[in-house]
Batch of 2 targets.
Target 1
Amino acid sequence: MSRNFQKKAEEMIRHTDDRATSNRIHILSILLAEQQALTHREIEARLSMKQQLDRVTLYRVLEWINNKNLAYKIASDDRVWRFRANMPTHAHQHAHFECTCCTKVICLDDLKLEFNMHYPLGIYFKKLN
Amino acid sequence: MSRNFQKKAEEMIRHTDDRATSNRIHILSILLAEQQALTHREIEARLSMKQQLDRVTLYRVLEWINNKNLAYKIASDDRVWRFRANMPTHAHQHAHFECTCCTKVICLDDLKLEFNMHYPLGIYFKKLN
DNA sequence: TATTCAATGCAACTTTGTTGCGATATATTT
DNA sequence: AAATATATCGCAACAAAGTTGCATTGAATA
């Protein structure tokens, strides 16, 4: 099972133009295996002995994964970024319920965004993160 | 005009059981005078020479103001707390549009919360901050 | 005006994240 | 398979936002 996430992670990373390093594969597979967004520290805790890496490298890998849209990051009330693997088939044309306590993001498919709503002048929607 | 906010701030603070110090009055009046949420640094910048105070004190005053519900604080993507004076007459039974770029919070009175919506089990609404 | 204890200022500390740079490892070429 | 180029990594130092402990000050009450 962990093996599958490993494979999936490597496949996703090889689709980018950048290098498929073992750090990137390990970290993305950890995110893929998880149902919720993880902090830097939570990811560190899930790395095995053999996968140990410098904290700076972890920050940089996470930033890279986010930039490549393989994951997205969530700002929470505790000033800590949380990362969650991106589901590429996930269409974002509906509202999200983001719990600021447990950081879980739940899709509210029933609540359609009202694009005709009266938003303040000068505010446009942009891609999340 | 600034004078009025001073008076209003002092009145609000005297309604609590704690002490009405000049720091608390100055800082709350700065928040009252503003239409948007302010960071610690932005508040510092708005203090006159005579109102200078230690940064720790500012953190503590803001925390106190928040605890007394005279203001609420907003977590933003830049990991910085923003504070905004609370309008006591403001009923929070409608959705908010919180811009993560400029931190402005706009009330979407048109969008009623659907309390019958199918939320995930175990999620209940709580008071914001 | 004197008294009391909450509020303040200062120094030191913590947490989260960033930057610069030489060393290492990945992908490509030979 | 070995050599090469350069992206990635590890280490050290740094930065920003916020917190804690403790001695001093000042707002409210007697």
Target 2
Amino acid sequence: MAAVVKTRISVVLADDHPVVRDGLAAMVNQQPDMEVVAEAGDGDEAIACYERHRPDVLVLDLRMPKRDGVAVVQRVLEINPKARILIMTTYDGDEDIFQCLSQGAKGYLLKDAPRQEILSAIRAVSEDRPYTSTTVAAKALQRMAKPSLTQRELDVLQLVAEGRSNKDIARRLSITEGTAKTHVKAILTKLDAISRTEAVAVAHKRGLIHL
Amino acid sequence: MAAVVKTRISVVLADDHPVVRDGLAAMVNQQPDMEVVAEAGDGDEAIACYERHRPDVLVLDLRMPKRDGVAVVQRVLEINPKARILIMTTYDGDEDIFQCLSQGAKGYLLKDAPRQEILSAIRAVSEDRPYTSTTVAAKALQRMAKPSLTQRELDVLQLVAEGRSNKDIARRLSITEGTAKTHVKAILTKLDAISRTEAVAVAHKRGLIHL
DNA sequence: CCGCCGCTCCCCCTTAAGATAGAGACTGCC
DNA sequence: GGCAGTCTCTATCTTAAGGGGGAGCGGCGG
């Protein structure tokens, strides 16, 4: 023996479903060239696990308790700008994809991906090669052609999505109803919607808001 | 040998995520008293698998391609009214829960449940004992206190959620705008909302609509 | 048979929403 | 300094939405 001493790819899994973690762990640990070194069940744990183990790859679900995926990506890249993060989620709204990739996540794929694709994505990311499935890449490109909403508009949009009236929104944000209307108008224009309800539908589809 | 000849609990898994199926399969097959006999990746396959294998327990995700979980429950119970179905999903809108349980699913739990709970739920259902986690049961009870929407109201609600105006809804359903308004009014009353946008938010939270 | 319910249509009225067209104040960037 | 973008506010006007009624008609079960 004493043959090849090639270190295996170390992986940290972050997902709030034990079932999914088990599935991924089983898949990964079956491979001769990779192993799971830690698992996290929420955003804070994910960050802590990353710091403690400094894995080659962090596999991350976007929707988690305590701190959502985008925030985790941001924080981990602060800790280590060279961190290799693979997003793996069920959600395919183009906003989430765009946010993660533009912040520096190395890969993004959907949970309905077949086993082989998941494994090759982990390998790719571990070698610092970007991996994004074609459908996901297409969405990211779509998103780039669309106008971005300002922070204030996102605040207003969130309240619109909760069913608040312009007057109510104005009160909560300490602005006048007229200003609230101005923001709503801008939102409608940018989302290409003709009513606030349609705007909510569009925004949800794009992942701008999570109801 | 020749000791006890107790047949193991046969399980069919239906979930559109290979990762989740792997996780469940690994968990189940590690138990001495149960085994996975087949897996399905969409609603149609789930029905076919059930018919072919007649498992003791069918573990079913609600959100699947081709045919959604509620429809699968309905169909499987037509095939075998004594079928033992365990719903396992991420969604906790009370409408889905209510629909499945009132149609005859034996158990309902969320994917973020710990391993032990999942396994004991499978065992319970296999013995024809209902299993529903406390949080889920609470939702089902909540739902019972709420007024139901008529089919027509659900049709209108769907269009409202897509951002259609009353006039547009009327055109699509071949009714007058006044009638559309009447339905919308009824929806607002039943959902205890003051605007259509709030109604959409409430309906989505309850699982009445899936955006 | 009658009453309940769901679906349809109608009225009037008030308020909210959206469209249009400005303008001042602040930021950061070139 | 000037320019761009954002956030704020103003005003007016038209249309859509929502509140409160009433009412006819068909099916279904007591």
